[in-house]
Design goal:
single chain; alpha/beta; Aminopeptidase; 3 domains; 8-stranded mixed beta sheet; aminopeptidase; hydrolase
């Protein structure tokens, strides 16, 4: 496989960094004009490197749905200010001072920190200060008669946190008060002053809620189908360098490097707002032309500054593919640096492969039957804050991930059939072997073979065999399960679902269970989930399935 690394030596992390700097100049909030401007910047760069593209745009209007996701309002930030004693914060300091999608408003009054449920009884006429569950707390602040809402996030230090409300037109029936964020250090000052006799602030927020705005969906293709599709979400606030100017910029460099290197697969590139854009793209795409997805999200985190590890999130078992095996191998090869005392290669950076986890646009492709993986640098000390600036990025991370992704693409496009089959069998054995080392598995092998059968159809191989079952569940309203959409259907069902999925991993297990249940019957789906993850909360999963059936999201075949 080393020969394929030579074909991508032209990948330059410095090129990625330059585009990160440019993209991070835009305040790329979903529903705003600047996210459109950022997409148009990418389109300009594609023209400069000779890549044809098209816009498959949708709209934000606060009323329509992007499949299962209610569209947020079209919204623009004008200005914001917060005054406390001799301190003044403005949107010149950071646009994050105003929470995304906040209504306009002015307020002056006493700050009420919210620490326990009883504190809400004193919220009327106050400016509430909240450190968690912000969206739910914002609604409660409106209902309690608070004058304004201030949010902070623990662990952000002097940086402003990014918190978006994602309000819809329906939400505007109750959402009236201005919403702001402050750095943790500033929040602590307010809390200390409030405890010692009272803290008073004055806030001003000016925003524009528009009838609609473009939801940009930028799509480029090299070669002919089937396509290996690369995706990156272009949204998030200024600067948002690692999240996710890094992935958006890397796609530009990948398109440059991969031009002319297509073969049994072509290459497609997709820039979208996270989740909403991908779900707007799905109905417009020819899904049977897409072989697999590599989603690039936060690909430039540094070990020393951001405390990041390079993670490779594999496909779920329900969408097994050789893709993570190829990408994982190239990541290890490129990540080799020093040598052990006997001469074996050592890793340059921390690197680990993980079973399927949710949290970015690879989720949508997996839900719609397209195997999706995600290389990501995580954690990131500056995640969703104003401190996520370009100088924090690591050129080394960008190089390792970028070259590994490019080499994976060329390998899938040009490797000899026999080599691809060898790698497919090898990765299948490795994957099943890893599971067997941890637990006794029952049905995973048949799903691995089913995934290899799909690989064979797209890549012209002769490995694997298809499962000949109908599955037990039909996904009626297909897409990421949206709590807000459930609330609009039935508040009681939404409340139950929220309680069930309080642990984030349970949501992953529910989505994977649904994907498995499209392929195999109910009992096998649970067994497969246990093969994949070990211990799962079976009763909670079954309870969630009942909620989704009652809500009409799914039905039994």
């Amino acid at each position: 496989m080393m020969s394929f690394l030579k074909e991508v030596e032209g990948f330059k992390s410095e090129n990625v960094f330059r585009d990160v700097v440019e993209i991070s100049r835009y305040h790329r909030i979903q529903g705003s004009r600047e996210i459109v401007d950022a997409a148009e910047y990418v389109a300009k760069r594609l023209s400069e490197i000779g890549i044809e593209y098209e816009f498959l745009n949708d709209r934000y209007d606060g009323k329509r749905y992007h499949l299962t996701l209610p569209s947020p309002i079209a919204w623009e930030l004008k200005r914001g200010k917060l005054e406390f004693e001799d301190k003044v914060l403005t949107t010149n300091d950071s646009p994050l001072l105003v929470m995304a999608h906040s209504p306009s408003g002015e307020a002056e009054g006493e700050v009420l920190p919210i620490f326990k449920d009883e504190d809400w009884e004193k919220a009327e006429g106050k400016i509430v200060l909240v450190g968690e569950d912000w969206r739910e707390a914002y609604k409660r602040a409106n209902e309690a008669g608070a004058r304004a809402f201030i949010a902070y996030r623990k662990g952000t230090g002097r940086a402003f946190p990014y918190i978006g409300l994602f309000l819809t037109k329906k939400d505007l029936e109750w959402a009236r008060i201005p919403a702001l964020t402050v750095p943790e250090t500033f929040a602590n000052e307010l809390i200390n002053k409030a405890k010692k006799g009272g803290a008073k602030v004055k806030v001003e927020v000016e925003t524009e809620i528009k009838e609609s705005e473009v939801l940009p969906v930028l799509y480029a293709k090299i070669g002919e189908p089937p396509y290996l599709l690369f995706s990156a979400h272009i949204c998030h606030p200024r600067p948002g360098a690692n999240d996710n100017a890094s992935g958006s910029a890397m796609l530009i460099e990948l398109a440059r490097v991969l031009k002319g290197k297509e073969g049994r697969v072509g290459f497609a590139f997709l820039w979208i707002p996270e989740y909403h854009g991908t779900q707007a793209f799905i109905p417009k795409a020819k899904l049977d032309e897409i072989y697999a997805n590599i989603n690039l999200d936060m690909v430039g985190g540094s070990e020393d500054r951001a405390k990041s590890t390079i993670m490779l999130v594999r496909t779920p078992l329900s969408r097994f593919s050789l893709l993570p095996g190829v990408l994982g191998t190239f990541l290890q090869l490129i990540n080799s640096g020093g040598k052990s005392f006997s001469g074996s290669p050592l890793p340059r950076m921390k690197l680990k492969e993980y079973p399927y986890e949710m949290g970015s646009d690879h989720d949508i492709f997996n839900i719609f039957g397209i195997p999706g993986v995600m290389p990501i640098t995580w954690p990131d000390s500056y995640y969703h804050t104003s401190a996520d600036t370009p100088e924090k990025l690591s050129l080394e991370s960008l190089e390792i991930i970028g070259k590994a992704v490019a080499a994976t693409a060329v390998f899938l496009a040009k490797a000899e059939k026999e080599e691809l089959e060898r790698v497919a069998r090898g990765f299948a054995m490795k994957y099943l072997g890893e599971l067997n080392l941890e637990r006794k598995i029952e049905v995973a092998e048949s799903l691995v073979m089913n995934g290899l059968s799909r690989d064979s159809k797209f890549l012209g191989l002769n490995v694997g065999h298809e499962i000949e079952e109908e599955g037990s569940i039909k996904w009626v309203e297909k897409g990421i399960i949206s709590l807000k959409a459930l609330e609009y259907k039935n508040e009681e069902l939404a409340k139950r679902y929220k309680e069930i999925t309080e642990e984030r991993m349970i949501s992953v297990h529910i989505h994977e269970y649904l994907m498995l249940s499209e392929i195999v019957e109910e009992e096998k789906a649970i067994k497969a989930l246990k093969d994949e993850y070990g211990e799962v909360k079976e009763e909670k999963i079954k309870e969630a399935i009942k909620v989704l059936k009652d809500a009409g999201v799914i039905k039994t075949k």
